[in-house]
């Protein structure tokens, strides 16, 4: 079954000659069993009639923000919430500029601002307009906001010129929407991930540990595999099923985790420390079960090595990402860890009554670098892991392109 089956797809059509291809796009999406609604700009009506798009989508087409009849049915905010995907095809240079500027001066731009659904645009314009620094800058802004830019293709254009700027084929747009947005962003990249808790033995039956289930780290490993990475997962004790495709190394203690990470790290491009590593371990683990006796006992603990900090400190080390679970001042405390350990990024999760990440299928993540932060919102761990991997890939590529120039 297509991943688009029963998905709500909002197709935005803007005023370019390629608008005639939108009817085929809608038909192809309906073939995939997607439920499609179409919104046109006023200019698009000069190129294709609403009736054609209504006929292929099976739903009335909207083009006006202040249409009281349509607002009484499905208002523009409901339409923005209804969408699972928004695809603008064709997207003219003018529409791309308005989107980049964050304008909301017609129904389609307003929907793009009001939706939380993934947004894709299929640019279509003359090759000189596509190459213009203003368009390049606008496309760059949209890419950095995670808007998926599909195409354009190169070839003979409606204006008679030949070059880049043709809208990609409707079948290719459907294939792109069918894929996970993170597909390929880490192709050829080797990622080492730590997950789960560590287990620091006190005696053969007792240990110091913490609440990590491994769910967050395993979700990050799965998302990295989906994104094309070669993933090595170094995991503390966990009942989670290992993500298919990852090379798993099971460890118990922080020292074992460090040794395994060190044996894998030389060939890694990215290191992500999701594990909740015990900061201390008993100075000595008893070989025999400790007997109950006194009301209170004292334990001598010694600091464990900091795996993340040691990876970040390596000369020619990988791009390094840490996690931080904080009960207060989440942003400040996490950024302090980022700076103290010399990390590229840190992912903070608050431990509060509204969000307890330990063992839960949900979480709320904040991605932090030295200067800025990005709220990835509250979602399932797998959805957050996908968003996170897209962001990590973007920061990793940006760092490498700066180093290469
Ligand atoms: O496994 P789940 O149930 O899904 O829960 C996920 C999680 C809450 C454990 C995870 O999202 C998370 O936040 N992990 C980090 C927990 C934490 O607070 O770590 P920390 O502040 O002690 O350490 C900060 C960073 O340094 C972490 O990346 C940690 O892996 C690393 N570290 C810490 C100590 C140490 N000795 N070595 C390390 O590498």
Properties at a glance:
19 strands, five-stranded parallel sheet, elongated, binds ligand PMT, 405 residues, eight-stranded mixed sheet, Rossmann fold, 14 helices, alpha/beta
Question: What is this structure, in a nutshell?
Answer:
The chain is α/β, with parallel strands linked by helices. The chain has 14 helices and 19 strands.
Give the helix/strand class. alpha/beta
What's the total count of β strands? Answer: 19
Can you identify the CATH class of the largest domain?
Answer: Alpha Beta
**CATH superfamily name of the largest domain?**
CoaB-like
Q: Number of helical segments?
A: 14
Global mean pLDDT: 92
Major sheet strand order: 12-11-8-13-16-17-18-19
Domains (count) = 2
Instruction: Give the CA-CA distance, first to last residue.
Output: 45 Å
Question: Which distinct ligands sit in these coordinates?
Answer: ligand PMT
Strand content: 15-25%
C-alpha Rg, in Å? 25 Å
Uncertain ranges: none
What is the CATH topology assignment of the largest domain? Rossmann fold
How many strands, which pairing sense, and closed or not: the largest β-sheet? 8 strands, mixed
The helical percent reads 25-40%
Task: Describe what this molecule looks like in 3D.
This protein has 405 residues and is of the alpha/beta class. It folds into 2 domains: 8-178, Flavin prenyltransferase-like (Rossmann fold, 3-Layer(aba) Sandwich), CATH 3.40.50; 190-284 and 295-404, CoaB-like (Rossmann fold, 3-Layer(aba) Sandwich). It is 35% helix and 24% strand. The protein is built from 14 helices and 19 strands. It has helices spanning 20-31, 50-57, 68-73, 76-82, 93-101, 107-114, 127-131, 133-144, 170-178, 215-226, 254-265, 307-312, 330-341, 381-404, and strands at residues 8-13, 35-40, 85-91, 119-123, 148-149, 153-156, 162-166, 190-195, 200-203, 206-208, 230-235, 247-250, 270-273, 280-282, 301-303, 319-326, 345-350, 362-368, 373-380. It has an 8-stranded mixed sheet, with helices on both faces. α1 (20-31) links the parallel β1 and β2. α1 runs parallel beside α2 (50-57), α4 crosses α6 and α5 packs across α8 (133-144). The protein is elongated. The relative contact order is 0.09. The mean pLDDT is 92. It binds ligand PMT. The site of ligand PMT has 28 residues, from α10, α12 and β16.
């Amino acid at each position: 079954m297509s991943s688009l089956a029963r998905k709500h797809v909002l197709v935005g059509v803007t005023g370019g000659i390629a608008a005639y291809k939108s009817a085929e796009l809608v038909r192809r999406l309906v073939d995939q069993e997607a439920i499609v609604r179409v919104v046109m700009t006023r200019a698009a009506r000069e190129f294709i009639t609403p009736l054609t798009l209504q006929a292929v989508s099976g739903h009335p087409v909207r083009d006006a923000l202040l249409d009281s009849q349509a607002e009484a049915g499905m208002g523009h905010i409901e339409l923005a919430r209804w969408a699972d995907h928004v695809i603008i095809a064709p997207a003219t240079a003018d529409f791309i500029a308005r989107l980049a500027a964050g304008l909301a001066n017609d129904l389609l731009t307003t929907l793009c601002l009001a939706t939380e659904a993934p947004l894709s645009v299929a640019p279509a314009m003359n090759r000189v307009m596509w190459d213009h620094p203003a368009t390049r800058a606008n496309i760059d802004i949209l890419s950095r906001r995670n808007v998926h830019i599909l195409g354009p293709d190169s070839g003979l254009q409606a204006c008679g010129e030949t070059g880049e700027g043709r809208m990609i084929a409707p079948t290719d747009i459907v294939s792109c929407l069918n894929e996970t947005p993170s597909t390929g962003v880490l192709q050829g990249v080797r990622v080492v991930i730590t997950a789960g808790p560590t287990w620091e033995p006190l005696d053969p039956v007792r240990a110091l540990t913490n609440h990590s289930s491994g769910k967050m780290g395993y979700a990050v490993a799965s998302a990295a595999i989906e994104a094309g990475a070669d993933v090595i997962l170094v995991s503390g004790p966990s009942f989670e099923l290992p993500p298919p495709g990852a090379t798993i190394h099971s460890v118990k203690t922080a020292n074992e985790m460090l040794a395994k990470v060190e044996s894998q790290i030389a060939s890694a491009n990215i290191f992500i420390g999701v594990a909740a590593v015990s900061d201390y371990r008993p100075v000595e683990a008893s070989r025999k079960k400790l007997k109950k006796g006194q009301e209170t006992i004292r334990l001598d603990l010694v600091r464990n090595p900091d795996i993340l900090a040691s990876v970040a400190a390596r000369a020619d080390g990988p791009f390094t990402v840490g996690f931080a679970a904080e009960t207060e001042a989440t942003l400040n405390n996490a950024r302090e860890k980022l700076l103290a350990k010399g990390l590229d990024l840190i992912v903070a999760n608050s431990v509060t009554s509204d969000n307890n990440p330990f063992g839960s299928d949900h979480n709320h993540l904040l991605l932090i670098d030295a200067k800025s932060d990005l709220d990835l919102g509250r979602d399932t761990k797998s959805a957050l892991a996908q968003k996170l991997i897209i962001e990590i890939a973007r920061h990793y590529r940006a760092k490498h392109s700066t180093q290469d120039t």
